[in-house]
Design brief:
Blueprint: H1 2-13, H2 30-39, E1 43-48, E2 51-52, E3 57-58, H3 63-75, E4 79-85, H4 89-98, E5 104-108, H5 114-124, E6 128-132, H6 159-167, E7 171-176, H7 188-194, H8 198-201, E8 209-212, H9 216-231, H10 239-251, H11 271-290
Parallel strand pairs: 1-4, 1-6, 4-5, 6-7, 7-8
Antiparallel strand pairs: 2-3
Helix pairs in contact: 1-9, 1-11, 2-9, 3-4, 3-9, 4-10, 5-6, 9-11, 10-11
The structure holds calcium ion (CA).
The site of calcium ion has 8 residues, from loops.
Amino acid sequence: MKLNAAIEVEKIIKRDAGGRGLSDIAPGPDLYKAAEELYGGTGIVIVTGFCIAEALCGETDGPLGAVTLAWALEKLGKRVMLATDGYSKHILDACAEYMELKAERVMLPLEADKAFFTRMLDNFKPSHIVSIERPGKAKDGRYYSMKGTDMTHLIPDSDSIFEAAKQRGIVTIAVGDGGNELGMGKVRDSVVKFLDMGETIAAVSEADHTIISGVSNWGAHGLEAMLSILGSRMLLQDEATEKALIEKMVEAGAVDGCSKRREPTVDGLSLEQNLEILSSLRKLTAECIREKI
Ligand code: CA
């Protein structure tokens, strides 16, 4: 029954309002499995933040989802660490402070390498790593934007966190919406098939569980919905909180990843479109909790 609920949640988070084309990937068990993993997890590292090269700043997709997922996990008593690079740190900080998170926050230096991530994991000892809208290396070992701009010189090599995690048996979960994000290797064939720049930009690293959504923040909200259903309590933030977080990100300098402008939109989608997804998820989640699904 909970697996069926996960399929319904996936349909909502996959609404392809941005027209990316990855919504054609059929729903699978990954969202359910990822939520079950996190529900049983002890320490979770969430890595996020996608630098927009034209603005030299992070975007509104990623930090919001990372922080609301962290908030839900903390309500379940989990230890959480939030990690991002210098372009998104102030954006993530603004959201984390608004939500009064306890989570430790780490800034990834540009020169971060496998040794850096190994130390980070050995100190925090996570059971799980979740990447949300974090650039992932393409086949040629370089980082690209959706439009194929080479961003390698801007991006700390966070693919190394998955390599270090795999060596330690830490379960990895990836959330993305464009196919060029860390951990999207499992859907690489679809990215190449559905996206014009797919062959160039598709990420190669594979997460244990991969969540595709219309907007990456929504993928994180999908996980929160499933954690709520597993825990029989509402762990999704309300609409007023979502609105405040989007405004906090823009105040902190975040740009919309599509328009490249500082405005309270995500991936070119209005505040109302984002709130509509959250409302649909909250409604479905409340029904599932009420009916003890
Ligand atoms: Ca996005």
